[in-house]
Design brief:
The complex is a heterotrimer of chains A (about 200), B (about 625) and C (about 280).
Chain A lengths: L4 E5 L5 H36 L18 H26 L6 H23 L9 H34 L4 H32 L1
Helix pairs in contact in A: 1-4, 1-5, 2-3, 2-5, 3-4, 4-5
Chain B lengths: L8 H23 L12 H19 L3 H7 L7 E5 L12 H29 L10 H19 L4 H13 L7 H19 L17 H4 L3 H29 L12 H32 L13 H35 L6 H14 L18 H10 L1 H15 L8 H24 L1 H7 L3 H31 L5 H27 L14 H32 L31 E2 L15 E2 L11
Antiparallel strand pairs in B: 2-3
Helix pairs in contact in B: 1-2, 2-7, 4-5, 4-6, 4-7, 4-19, 5-7, 6-9, 7-9, 9-10, 10-11, 10-12, 11-14, 11-15, 11-17, 12-14, 14-15, 15-17, 15-18, 17-18, 18-19
Chain C lengths: L1 H29 L10 H34 L17 H29 L22 E8 L2 E6 L5 E3 L3 E3 L3 E8 L4 E5 L4 E5 L5 E6 L4 E7 L12 E6 L1 H19 L19
Parallel strand pairs in C: 1-5, 4-10
Antiparallel strand pairs in C: 1-2, 2-3, 5-8, 6-7, 6-9, 9-10
Helix pairs in contact in C: 1-2
């Protein structure tokens, strides 16, 4: 039981294979994430159509629980601009200059964190309680888990930035890791668009 | 970086327990003063926060956060494998897929035995038509624990031990795509089992493995344990599928074309598709249930704008692919084993691949057959009847492969072969009884009765568990380097096969004679059937003990070293030395032949283990 | 080739003989005992579905059993020797034939099942939700029975008879009955075994099932969906009685339940339980 650990190293696979693995992993993670949020999409449409006990929109007949659209727009804008900035960084990395990828990614990171912060702030001033009907439930679930996913994505982005900062890597390697991240982040961007349309538009 | 403490199972347990109490305290602080808690003596927020912090503590105690934190600080990626020799390495986080395979084998096996013990207790209660052995609440908890534990654990029953251990060996890779994620998928499994069993401390949960809301919303804190444990398994399944799929798609050795891929790997691949896509839906369904119980939302409560059907839809959207997560690896195992012991190529290889992918695809379109009489979408019932019955076409292909492979064979009746043949018999009955359940008029009688229960025990126990034992007897010599006793293996097989059928076949009759599932009280005239079933079930339990005895005897006392390739198989996994070296292959091998070319004149060897000039792995 | 076809001929012969024996046995010996009997038109439909499915499964089971049995005896290695079998990788005509046959069987079963379900059996006694696809003729004059599941009992309300609530269920013979199944707390499933009725009782939902009763007799009522502690005790016996018997039963129930009636909530297709609290 107490034998001393001996460290051995598995011979490194080539970096190209590593990049392929991460890239494929990102696609699979995006697929899983999509199915996760499709559950909330389904819950939205299903509960809205059923309108059990007339309580989809809240307890007062004819009224819908209020949501603060301004912060919704702010969150949407932060996420979408952040997604676009990551795409921009990718274009930079594939181009010849490569100067702007770092600020673009850093900006994307800040915007993503801003989306998280705005969402948390919005919870303190919702105007309705979680128990007020189907919409309130779906709203809380969807935005809540979206925020958690966004925060996770930002940790990933931070890893890429920190790694590049500490040991300036070759551009192709950075490009591959940013590309993998971009797939996942763009998926979350699509989820946010759907969330905005349904939660703030359709209600 | 030297660590201050050696992180292993001990630290995991310590951190986990500390995390639970810390989390429970945090949860109590959060929930304090919320009026819906007033008047109840339980605080679900505290329980969930306790579980969450316990999970974080458990993973931290095993060292799972060291690497992500170092990556956040910008340290480079890499895969050092720190190896302890001896048994110690099985009690700590290891990124070696072979260690993880063995961890899975014993970890999941232990929970399988506990789940089986629950079944024995259930059958004890059912010896009499009225509650005798257990109070009704305890009985329901036993039913729930048995069902949940079996589903949770058997989801990883084949992919866990054998998928993780043999997929890299079979495709000529040195490791899995994401070794740390692989370690985490395992270590979440025992944690989930422990969390689930902690339900006993909260007086259990009444819902069975399906956890139907609103009963789940009404239930007491034991339900939280069910929800959290199943969430952990959902995450574990999703990550396991992601990892296996990434491995198979990217890390095949040169020459491992799609038509040379062993059929077991195809089974794993089609299963991983289901795991990646279906488990997130389970996770979402359980999270909604968690919000209902903690944040007072109303996803599943009709009175507050929700619907019980929402849970049923989401759960079965996961639940039906889930049953194929259980079945498909079994298909892969038996088709992998048949050619070895018939000394023939696998008959209809491409058709088998198409069959497994077809099952995986169709399984996403059948879930509402669980809801035929629930009162939703009655107009869609013919559609789901059609898709459900259609799934028997790709499943039938597996039987055709079996038929073709046995044709003009030279069969050897080894223990793995016996289990594989029994798989066909059991799955035949399990599959055909499914036709009754897919036909709506017949389902009105059989739905929710013991017929259903017998049906899925024939497919899961008769299919998956028999395939698991086939794989165990086939591959354990490679995994442990020790021979399993064949005589005990045959006794195990025959007792298991006979008593399995004696246990579950009469249950079809019980279901036809109006015995509903999950009852502790039944009509007195059914006592004869139930007593027969219970006695057979106890003998089935004894046959499991024979297997455990065989394991202990062969691995602890007899310890006869296994040959490198005792079955004379062409599989790549048998071409490496026993025990398998840490790197699997000194050089990445070059695949030169088909794994099932038995008796083919002039067939090339399956692989060159030391390619003359190791080619660059370009694809 | 000659040897090969002799195997095939033997297997085929054994299969045909065993099938020829099995199918009449299933239809005429086992069939009459298959559930749920013939107390209602829907129950008869289910019984014949069970007979047909068993009869369809029999040749498949026998094919596999005969083939595997034959193969296990004949295609074995002699004396534990390791010798190679015939290296056959497949046989396109067999594969095609198998796919065509299984697909055809499955399609036929699905079409037949749908026809029974929708056209002849009008839902086959299963719960169809609030809007049944194809209500049977005469649904307007059907006897309306609301089945209310609650932990852990069934009660019945008869909107055509002043919406009284009874603790037992009697039904007239030779009558179309329209069950409205609903629940007051968690999901139950109303299973009237001999009637061939099964419909989930879901809170907030009016789940409709039709059944044509035929002859008098008694039937057992169970709960087929786990509903908590005393799930197994949701067990009653109902009666199908003559029309006159039903009228007198209803008269006596109306008398007995008259006092209780004013405590009942107004009749509705479904009732919303109080927002749920943890069971204390």
């Amino acid at each position: 039981m107490s034998a001393e650990p001996t460290t051995t190293w598995i011979p490194a696979e080539n970096p190209e294979l590593e990049a392929r693995i991460v890239s494929l992993g990102s696609y699979l993670l995006s697929a899983a994430t999509t199915f996760f949020f499709i559950s909330f999409l389904f819950a939205f449409l299903y509960l809205r159509a059923l309108n059990s006990n007339g309580l989809w929109g809240g307890p007062k007949p004819g009224h819908h629980v209020p949501t603060t659209t301004t912060s919704g727009i702010a969150i949407l804008a932060c996420v979408l601009v952040s997604v676009l900035l990551v795409r921009l960084a990718l274009v930079e990395l594939r181009g010849s200059t490569r100067a702007l990828w770092w600020p673009a990614c850093a900006g994307a990171l800040l915007l993503g964190l801003a989306a998280v912060a705005i969402q948390c702030w919005q919870y303190t001033d919702l105007g309705f309680g979680t128990e007020e009907g189907g919409y309130a439930s779906v709203y809380l679930g969807w935005t809540g888990f979206f925020t958690i996913f966004t925060f996770g994505a930002m940790l990933w982005l931070e890893t890429i930035l920190a790694t590049a900062r500490r040991a300036p890597a070759k551009a192709p390697e950075v490009e591959k890791s940013v590309a993998s991240f971009s797939v996942f982040w763009a998926t979350l961007g699509l989820v946010e668009i759907a969330a905005f349309i349904l939660l703030y538009g359709v209600k | 970086m030297r660590r201050l403490v050696r992180l292993n199972l001990r630290t995991a347990i310590a951190f986990g327990i500390a995390g639970f109490f810390l989390g429970a305290w945090v949860g109590r602080e959060i929930a304090a003063g919320h009026d819906y808690l007033i008047g109840t003596d339980q605080d679900d927020v505290a329980v969930f926060m306790g579980f969450l912090f316990a999970t974080i503590g458990w993973l931290a105690g095993l060292g799972f956060f060291n690497y992500p934190v170092s990556r956040l600080l910008g340290r480079p990626a890499g895969y050092p494998v720190e190896e302890a020799k001896g048994t110690a390495r099985y009690f700590r986080m290891s990124t070696d897929h072979k260690v993880i395979g063995i961890q899975y084998f014993f970890g999941v096996g232990a929970f399988f035995l506990i789940g089986g013990l629950n079944a024995m207790l259930i059958r004890t209660e059912l010896l009499t038509p009225n509650e005798k052995a257990f109070p009704a609440g305890q009985y329901l908890t036993l039913v729930g624990l048995h069902g949940t534990m079996m589903i949770m654990m058997t989801s990883a029953f084949i992919l866990g031990p054998f998928g993780n251990y043999f997929v890299p060996l079979m495709i000529g890779a040195r490791r899995m795509a994401f070794p740390r994620i692989e370690a985490m998928t395992f270590w979440l499994t025992p944690l989930a089992g422990l969390v689930l069993m902690s339900a006993i401390a909260w007086n259990g949960f009444p819902t069975g493995w399906t956890g139907y809301a609103p009963l789940a919303d009404q239930a007491r804190a034991g339900m939280d344990a069910y929800i959290f444990a199943f969430m952990l398994i959902g995450i574990s399944l999703c990550l396991n599928g992601l990892n296996l799929m990434a491995t198979i798609l990217t890390m095949r050795a040169p020459g491992m074309t799609w038509t040379r891929l062993p059929i077991f790997v195809w089974g794993v691949l089609s299963t991983s598709i289901l795991m990646v896509l279906a488990s997130p839906v389970l996770l979402a369904a359980l999270l909604m249930g968690m919000l209902d119980r903690t944040a007072n939302t109303g996803f599943y409560l009709a009175s507050t704008g929700g619907s019980a059907y929402l849970y049923e839809n989401l759960f079965w959207f996961f639940g039906h692919p889930e049953v194929y997560i259980l079945a498909l690896p079994g298909f892969g195992i038996v088709l992998e084993i048949l050619p070895v012991f018939t000394r023939k190529p696998l008959w209809g290889y491409k058709l088998a691949v198409a069959g497994m992918l077809g099952v995986a695809f169709l399984s996403f379109f059948v879930w509402q057959h669980h809801l035929f009489v629930s009162g939703i979408n009655s107009t869609l019932r013919p559609f789901y009847m059609l898709t459900t019955e259609m799934i028997s076409v790709p499943t039938g292909i597996i039987f055709l492969n079996g038929i073709g492979t046995l044709w003009l064979a030279k069969m050897r009746y080894t223990v793995p072969m016996l289990f594989s043949l029994a798989f066909f018999f059991n799955f035949l009955i399990g599959g055909l009884s499914g036709i009754f359940l897919s036909d709506v008029p017949s389902d009105v009688t059989t739905h929710g009765s013991y017929f259903t229960m017998a049906h899925f025990h024939y497919t899961i126990m008769g299919g998956l568990v028999f395939a698991f034992f086939a794989a165990t007897y086939y591959w354990l010599p490679k995994m442990t380097g020790l021979v399993l006793n064949e005589k005990l293996g045959k006794i195990h097989f025959w007792t298991m096969f006979v008593f399995f059928n004696l246990t579950f076949f009469p249950l079809f009759a019980a279901g036809f004679l109006d015995m509903p599932r999950r009852v502790s009280t039944y009509a007195p005239h059914l006592q004869v059937i139930n007593d027969l079933v219970s006695s057979a079930a106890f003998c089935l339990g004894i046959s499991m003990l024979i297997f455990v005895g065989n394991l202990i005897y062969s691995l602890v006392f007899a310890r006869i070293p296994a040959e490198q390739n005792p079955w004379h198989s062409r599989g790549l996994e048998w071409q490496v030395p026993t025990p398998v070296p840490l790197h699997n292959f000194d050089e990445i091998p070059e695949i030169t032949g088909d794994p099932y070319d038995y008796g083919v004149p002039g067939a090339p060897p399956v692989a060159r283990l030391r390619p003359a000039s190791a080619p660059a792995r370009a694809r | 080739m000659a040897r090969l076809s002799s195997h095939a001929r033997r297997i085929l012969a054994m299969w045909l003989v065993s099938t020829a024996v099995a199918i009449p046995l299933i239809i005429w010996v086992l069939g009459p005992h298959l559930p749920p009997g013939d107390m209602t038109a829907e129950a008869s439909d289910q019984t014949s579905a069970n007979i047909v499915l068993t009869a369809v499964c029999a040749p498949i089971v026998l094919l596999i059993l005969v083939y595997f049995g034959y193969a296990l005896v004949v295609f074995r290695a002699s004396g534990g020797q390791i010798e190679d079998g015939a290296p056959i990788r497949g046989h396109a005509p067999t594969q095609t034939l198998w796919l065509v046959l299984t697909s055809a069987t499955v399609l036929a079963l699905a079409v037949w099942g749908s026809l029974v379900l929708v056209v002849s059996a009008h839902g086959a006694g299963g719960g169809q939700g609030p809007n049944p696809i194809d209500p049977p003729a005469g649904a307007k004059e059907a006897l309306q029975v609301q089945v209310i599941g609650q932990q852990w009992n069934w009660t019945y309300r008869f909107p055509g008879y002043g919406a009284i609530e009874t603790a037992h269920l009697d039904l007239p013979a030779d009558r179309l009955v329209e069950f409205h199944v609903t629940s007051l707390d968690v999901t139950h499933s109303f299973w009237a075994y001999e009637l061939g009725v099964k419909a989930d009782a879901v809170p907030g939902v009016d789940n409709i099932a039709f059944v044509h009763t035929r002859k008098p007799g008694s039937f057992s009522i169970r709960c087929a969906e786990l509903c908590g502690l005393w799930h197994g005790h949701m067990y009653q016996t109902g009666q199908v009685v003559s029309t006159a018997g039903f009228a007198s039963w209803m008269a006596s129930e109306q008398k007995a339940e008259a006092l209780n009636k004013k405590y009942l909530p107004p009749y509705s297709g479904h009732y919303y339980p109080e927002p749920q609290r943890r069971a204390g």
